[in-house]
Amino acid sequence: MKTSWVVTSVACAAALAGVAHAQSPSTHAAQMIRSRSKAVCVNPHPNHMKISAIVVGFSQSQGNENPFRAEETKSLKDAAASFHAKRYVYTNAHSNEAKQVADVESMINQGAQALVIAPLNSTGLQPAFAQAVGKHIPIITIDRHTAGTDCTDYLSFMGSNFYKQGEIDGEQLAKATGGHAVIAEIQGAYGNSVETARTKGFAAAIHKYPGMKIIAAQTGNWSTTDAQTVMSQILLAHPNVNAVYTQSDTMAFGAITALRDAGKKPGQVKIVTIDGTKQGVQDIVSGWVYADDETNPRFGPIALHEIQNWFDGKPVPQTIVIKDHLYTQADAKSALASDAPY
Q1: CA distances from 317 to 123, 157, 207 (A)
Q2: Could you list the residue range(s) of the whole structural domain that residue 251 is in?
Q3: Are residues 27 and 83 in the same domain?
């Protein structure tokens, strides 16, 4: 793979201009993209193999009890069916880094010819990448950045603008509190790029408001149970908290339970969160959540479209930012009625 992949820095808009006229999965993919990097990967030896002729593998990092992961998993499975993949292989690491490496190696041994990986952490996949490199297997990474070299270890990273999500939630919290807040921040698991970016983005946004202070910041490990425990502890130490920023809906659910147990009423403590799940949007309607910035998990059509581009010798952007939606009181009810949240 190292000797057969070429990095260029040309715009790929022209190569993707025909997407709107392609098959429906590709059209769907184009409509979901917010931006593409100018830097691309190009296959110098395209074989024009179709997805319908290959085995596609997907390595999920966490259990599907998380709504985001469930929808992400469904998106890849549905896309494989839409693109008529010869065979689709699925594994789930269940938050175990060593298992994810073993899962990828297992899929390669099962004959996978293209891989989509949702990395668990920002490092740790190098052994799996090395095996894929040795067999010239293209990889698309989704949702979380992980250590590796574009066009060598993987073709592309696809995900949301996590820093911007933090900024948006900071601005929404400033709007909700009039720029005066005692904030509890419940962060994601330490050691991955999503938590880092969302933390930095939020800090940058509230820095503009002298009346907004983070009184406590702790990890909730993306877990409802952990977030409930953390929120309860923060309320005991800082009963004057009037605003909460959680970096995922799963943690917002735990924070809401802790607030309810502490006798708080909906809207008494302003909550902003990230994911845009159905329950998160319902919590906006119920008054518990002020704003919920979606993290779009529907990577399947985009990932397989770009894998097809790779086989066809077309440019594959090294970074693709997917479109997200900000849910507020203005559209939460209508969004639920149209079944937009996942």
Answers
A1: 22, 8, 33
A2: 162-295
A3: yes
